[in-house]
Fold this sequence. Notes:
Layout: H1 2-34, H2 41-51, H3 55-66, H4 86-95, H5 106-123, H6 128-137, H7 140-148, H8 157-173, H9 201-209
Protein name: Transglycosylase SLT domain-containing protein
Organism: Candidatus Berkelbacteria bacterium RIFOXYA2_FULL_43_10
GO molecular function: lysozyme activity
Amino acid sequence: MRKITKFNIILAVGVFGVFLAAGYFLLPSVLGDTVYPLKYADFISKYSMQEGVDPALVAGIIMQESRFNPNAVSSVGAKGLSQFMDGTARTMAKRYNLTSYDIFNPETAVMFCAGHVKDLLINYNGDVDAALSAYNAGGGNVNVWYKLGMPQNYPSRGYINSVKKYRDVYASLYPNELGITNSKYDTTVEIKTEKKPVFSAFWGSIFQRFSIPESDK
């Protein structure tokens, strides 16, 4: 009787160990497929490398904007994977010398996203928070607070934090798929070297009172 009990215990422990091992190896994949899906990784890797921007950041933006739904349309008319308004999409088409384009095409949307991220990083001297804020809410208020040297006042702070969280997750879960070989925060864009002026808290508060209301996207 004791031998049978001991055998059952050993068997149960062995089965439990197998389940633990399976969970250890399979759980990240399951989480990635359900909680943090990744689609169009080839396009993200290709155009991020072409533009010299962090592919995990691009993936994080797309996750936040559309959860990788190429047919997404927001309540204000932002379209596609990267949720571009028509005006921004036309600007990016000119940047790539395209006479026609389809913003609902996943490759086009990813290309425009990577290019827009690069342009914003260049414009804001590599400041990721400023670039993300401008991506989400436009450059109006961002320009004011960037020039004042007061990043804590950038609009869309929740959006910024969410995208950066997704960036970290995608860099951790999908480094091979995204072609990440260096630091997950690596960017090779040539940024401006101008220094932001520093203003006193008094003048910052004055500008804050007259800043442009943040628009919803």
